[in-house]
């Protein structure tokens, strides 16, 4: 239960339901990754044909975890006032992303001898394709 006497003006209400959704989404992310890592290692002859049904069902149910996080964040930011500090923090995140992208490119050059032009690197960074796992930035 939320003690409303300790709530500040900056955070007028705390929605416990959002916390429950985020907890569910955390477990859903874990289950999706668990499923992706074990789906071909379960012997079907021991566990039967229902393993494939379970794997397909849990994937479809738990793949919603990332959109749930986005929806929770959007809901919590609905009435947010964007200040100068907010944009400074956003700039830091983008700077970190650019640094990680360039480091990833240097690793690709060193390991796979993959070279790109400056324009391709620029487009790859800002289209989030240089690092394939950075789509969420």
UniProtKB/TrEMBL annotation:
<keyword id="KW-1133">Transmembrane helix</keyword>
<feature type="transmembrane region" description="Helical">
    <location>
        <begin position="59"/>
        <end position="78"/>
    </location>
</feature>
<dbReference type="InterPro" id="IPR002656">
    <property type="entry name" value="Acyl_transf_3_dom"/>
</dbReference>
<feature type="domain" description="Acyltransferase 3">
    <location>
        <begin position="16"/>
        <end position="137"/>
    </location>
</feature>
<keyword id="KW-0472">Membrane</keyword>
<feature type="transmembrane region" description="Helical">
    <location>
        <begin position="20"/>
        <end position="38"/>
    </location>
</feature>
<keyword id="KW-0812">Transmembrane</keyword>
<dbReference type="Pfam" id="PF01757">
    <property type="entry name" value="Acyl_transf_3"/>
</dbReference>
<protein>
    <recommendedName>
        <fullName>Acyltransferase 3 domain-containing protein</fullName>
    </recommendedName>
</protein>
<feature type="transmembrane region" description="Helical">
    <location>
        <begin position="90"/>
        <end position="111"/>
    </location>
</feature>
């Amino acid at each position: 239960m939320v003690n409303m006497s300790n709530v500040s003006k900056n955070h007028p209400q705390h929605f416990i339901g959002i916390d429950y959704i985020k907890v569910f989404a955390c477990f859903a992310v874990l289950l999706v990754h668990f499923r992706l890592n074990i789906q071909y290692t379960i012997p079907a002859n021991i566990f039967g044909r229902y393993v494939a049904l379970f794997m397909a069902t849990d994937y479809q149910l738990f793949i919603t975890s990332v959109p749930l996080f986005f929806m929770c964040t959007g809901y919590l930011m609905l009435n947010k006032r964007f200040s100068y500090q907010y944009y400074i923090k956003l700039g830091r995140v983008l700077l970190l992303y650019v640094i990680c992208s360039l480091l990833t490119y240097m690793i690709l050059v060193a390991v796979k001898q993959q070279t790109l032009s400056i324009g391709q690197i620029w487009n790859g960074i800002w289209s989030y394709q240089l690092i394939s796992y950075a789509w969420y930035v």
